[in-house]
Known about the structure:
Layout: H1 3-10, H2 13-42, H3 47-57, H4 60-71, H5 76-86, H6 89-101, H7 106-115, H8 118-127, H9 137-161, H10 172-187, H11 191-206, H12 215-237, E1 241-245, H13 253-261, E2 264-268
Parallel strand pairs: 1-2
Amino acid sequence: MSLSRLAAQLRQPAFRDGVVDLIGPAVGVGAWGLVTGVAMVKSGMPVGMAVFMSLLVYAGSAQLAVIPLLSVGAPLWVIWLTAACVNLRFVIFSSMWRSYFAHLPLRQRLALGYFSGDVIYVAFMKRFPEPRPAPEQVPYFWGAASTNWLAWQVPSIAGILLANAVPLSWGLGFAGVLALLGVLLSLLFDRATWLATGVAATAAIAAFALPLKLNILVALAAAVAAGLLMEAVDRSRHKPELLLVPADSVMPPEEREHVAAGDVVPLREERHP
């Protein structure tokens, strides 16, 4: 993105809307980032590697999930599998964002993928519930994404650099749990997410005795299965609408998307001589 286009994005009202919508969740994200930064160094990771991981990975839940595995010397395949399972939700996010950003160049879509996050996804979908492109969507995304990125990176790097000066008596682990709970509750917006969260919590507790923190993988697998099952049940109950299409007309692109999603069944009129 050129500097002129970047400046134009910053002047958009939608950019400011994205910033405003993320200011509230940014407090919890910042606390989460601080705890993660401290935890990386306390687990024995060198400061330089921790900063590199924070900037490159930029995935708080995956970082927190693999830090205990790294500290106990877990096999590499367990670490990779854990991080991949934790980040499976981004596959769902990208499939939903495809309706909004599929027309953008690949380089810009890759940038959107790096800066995407849970709270950004929730705020974006609340602001733009209709799955169709609009001019204000990209500026809004960048406003939310820049706020979320700064809210994470600044406290995370501060925690990395000041980790050895932070005493364990401060109880940052508990503060991190509270921050995660705040972020988690902001993501629970429908029946499927509540069900998946409850199943994950139950599975994690039931499998707590497993070695190498494998209860995390069990919880993730159970949550994904519960979410997919709930989605399948909702789809089976959903009855598509009939769309009457005139004989000589061309179906608009947005209607074709609804047909592809199974929400609409087209019925074209026939012309008789």
